[in-house]
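Design review, sub-item: ligand-bound model
Attendees: FS, YL, KQ
YL presented the inputs for the 3-hydroxybutanoyl-coenzyme A complex:
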Amino acid sequence: MAATRRLSHSVAVITINHPPVNALSHSLRRSIAKEFGDASKDSSIEAIVLCGANGNFCAGADIKEFGSSTLDSVSLNNINDTIERCKKPVVAAIEGVALGGGLELALSCHYRVANVQARVGLPEVLIGILPAAGGTQRLPRLIGIPAALDMIVRGRHVPATEALQLGVVDEVVKANTVDAAIQLARKVLGQSLETRRLSTSPVQSIPNMDNFLNTAMTKAKRQFRGAQAPLACIEAVKASIVLPFQKGLEKERELFTSLWSTGQPQAQQYAFFSEREVGKWTTPSGGRWDKVAPKAIRTAAVIGLGTMGRGIVTSLSKANIPVIALEQDTKQLDIGRQAVNALLDREVLKLKQQGKASSPGDGLGSVTFTLDFGDLHNVDLIIEAVYENLQLKKEIFHKLSAIAKPDAFLCTNTSGLNIDEIASVTNRPEQVIGTHFFSPANIMRLLEVVRGHHTSLTTIATAMNLGKSLGKVAVLVGNCPLFVGNRMLGPYLEQAGYLLEEGCYPEEVDQALEEFGFAMGPFRMMDLAGLDVGWRSRTEQGLTGPNAPPGFSARQRNGKRYSPLADMLCELGRFGQKSGKGWYQYEKAGGRNAKPDPWVRDFLEKYRRTHQTEQHPANPQEIQDRCLYALINEGFRILEDGIASGPEDIDVIYNNGYGFPKHRGGIMYYAATVGLTKVFNTLDKYSKANADVPSMKPTFLLKKLAAVGGPPIKEWRTQIGNSNSRL
Ligand code: 3HC
Ligand code: NAI
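KQ shared the predicted structure:
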């Protein structure tokens, strides 16, 4: 881990080297400072180029060192200051990424040359902090307040071509970035560097600046629901206008320090590292991710082009994998083709804007449409996304056994059916795996990879690797009804239903959970997903509908409490957004603006009177506790059952698939923050008073961890035992 220096035509090329992404650790910063100091003093050197090894310029501060040496990160400010003041021209040669402290380093250089594939950005907000080495003060001076605010508050990775348009970089090249930087450095020799020093440049004013910033603040408060970092970013950018540069830097540091004390940066950085950790799966039999080579997926097929299939096709094509898309009849094929083409058109547009495509199809895998299963005989991997019907899926897998080439992988996108049963009808159960995408599949980052009893390590490695190639975060989970995410929804939605029976209204429950930070409360979520999906499944299970045993009372099933409210809405054709009515009312079928519905109020009041339910309208805190503790308890049950290998896996699933607020780390991380003793006691009290709600009975694992004082989340794994470590 060091910066090294070589000479090229009297230009010193300083290469930052700390694999894999050249994070600015303490010792790397020391090394850069030394090499830079030496180069600036050396009279044989006329200019300096700063570049990165390993195909990257620099991904910013070393996040692993945060907390242990937060004050040390200040020294990046000193390096930046030295670079900017240098009398010799300094040019940053940006390949790969220049992010966070990496871009701040580049902003202190006098010029920036980027490779066309490079990305730049200040994504600190995504790990709960703000740029703390001058980024909030230099970027507005370079590209103006609106563009800088957008980049900093959203933490966007900006592609090189856009960075050129915005003025973040001075030149974009297709190849030989360092050579281009050397040339530029030589070209500007002798020119004044005064206007290139951002700390001394003025900030371009815009009309109604105060108004603009106030609106940005109001919008951010609404959009980021309790996350403090975006608000601190706006404050810091505001400082660049109202304060001189040095004072602005002080404000930036002050905001950084106060953010740290909220606990949100620690939570978000836990979430960041958890996302990387879950990719390193192991199995009880000793299989390790880095010991099993994935097979290359050169071609793929998708069966069923409904809501999920069309998104999966798009996702594969975006990853430049040619796809064959199959439907059951001409009508469905035409509908599917139109939908896929519309999604792909948007991708082409994006690629063109990024300068990565010049003609349709560039950078995308081809998509061909068919009705003939025979066309799938030669693809490497097939993903089935037909209706959620076990019999139908088994028929398809049986057919695929005969058609697909022997080494082809067979994946199912089921949301919760038994993978082993689907695999049992094939001639290759070891090559069958669940790939559970989330809707819309071309956008949502989560992929639950579900291993069956016979799934081989190579199959797991291939599915996990495919997830990464698609830009997803893939989490390996075990096979049980509904897997991890959807299984946890059960007790959560159960509590939400009981809260209505006891006197709350859907909008109150949603509001309490949205104030907690969820992207959407449970009732708005159900309306969006379609109430009929769960209803159909409950009807199939005989919990409701014509197959339900006549002995069922309205509010009990097999001795357990049951809320029939959702079933009653479905019986009235209220399926949610798709039918224009559900827990809320919408402007039309397919409408998106949920409005509280007086009809639902009347319906609930009548229900409560009819069933004489005990009335106890919960306050927001109680609503949050009951719903969140239901999730947490099921999370512990999943850990006990070995379905997820650690709390990080559950947190990554909830953060990326269910709109859990990342600034709280994850649902299990939240449990650790609240304190496991408190969680245990609350659940225990509730469950003793509600013996007919077994999902709230504290799990053994929670009890065990609470009994030893609720250790930090990193230590849970040893208490869980090794049996399910990383599955
Ligand atoms: N610090 C420490 N480790 C880092 C890191 C960082 N800034 N960025 C990435 N890593 C590590 C990852 O943890 C991972 O480690 P592992 O192999 O041991 O699991 C490894 O580098 C590779 O990372 P990815 O698996 O994420 O690789 P990708 O190629 O998919 O993505 C990336 C690379 C785009 C750089 C992505 O890792 C990323 O977004 N990193 C974070 C960038 C960031 O937030 N920078 C700001 C840091 S804070 C800062 O600079 C403060 C400053 O203002 C003072
Ligand atoms: P959908 O009803 O929108 O689409 C299913 C498609 O499969 C239809 O276009 C249908 O014509 C096609 N199909 C049916 N039988 C076929 C056959 N024999 N051959 C070829 N095509 C056939 O269903 P959706 O929502 O896309 O769900 C698909 C799968 O994905 C299900 O298993 C579902 O549980 C799962 N899933 C759904 C999610 C969602 O939000 N909709 C989320 C995650 C998983």
